[in-house]
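Predict the structure of CO dehydrogenase maturation factor.
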Amino acid sequence: MSKIIAFAGKGGVGKTTVAALVIRHLANSGQTPILAVDADPNSNLGETLGLAVPTTIGDIRETFMRDPQGVPSGMDKAIYLETLVEQALIEQPSFDLLVMGRQEGQGCYCMVNNILNRFTDRLAGSYRYMVVDNEAGMEHLSRRTSGRVDNLYLVTDYSLRGLRAVGRINAMLDSLKLQVQDLGIVVTRAPTQLNDTFLREAEEIGLPIVGIIPDDPALLDFDMEKRSLLELPDDSPAVQAVDRLLAATCPA
Ligand SMILES: Nc1ncnc2c1ncn2[C@@H]1O[C@H](COP(=O)(O)OP(=O)(O)OP(=O)(O)O)[C@@H](O)[C@H]1O
Ligand SMILES: [Mg+2]
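Done. Here is the predicted structure for CO dehydrogenase maturation factor.
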């Protein structure tokens, strides 16, 4: 069974960036195969990894629902949909990327969703790691991960607002039917020294700060130049911080 790594936190705090750097760490340290899942409807994990995304699972669902008769004659619906998902998988030497795209629209998509969910679950099982970058809300995370996450990183920038969002997510976890093995706070765009107010609030949440990622100007440059974070130099401060985070919380 694959090890599932996921991220949660307020919008814009750096979840996708950390997800991309986690994939980079696992790929570069040979902890493969890896399935990267972009579960954010406004997907951009692909971009962050320098990949164009021609088809999403949402596109497959929409196309199928628009023309259910489009299944080649004599072919089982489930097998047809599974073939489309396989074609949508973006294969790289050290990881594969699956982009979920738009969420279910209105109307009854149950049958299609069940087939797609069952197949993506089965697919995920054949990888050593599944790294899921989801949207700011937590509603869909349990479904995307079949209710089980090995490492959930609660990401916040260096702000009390970000940290309070982490507190709220932590308080919500029980009601989400999500089984989490390891849970910790990751602070991004952090100064060298976190101040006492921030540390006190983190302590009140009752979770350890497992990673501190400094403000790294190279990230903004790469973003502007649309370059893949996989190309960041090994000595970039953000890369080194994520390498330390994984060594401490998710050893090979
Ligand atoms: N440690 C850091 N240093 C400097 N810039 C950073 C750092 N982490 C993230 N950023 C920048 O912050 C912006 C938002 O990051 P990112 O897209 O990873 O956030 P997000 O939490 O995934 O956002 P969303 O909730 O919209 O999905 C990006 O421009 C990214 O380059
Ligand atoms: Mg994101």
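The longest strand covers residues 179-190.
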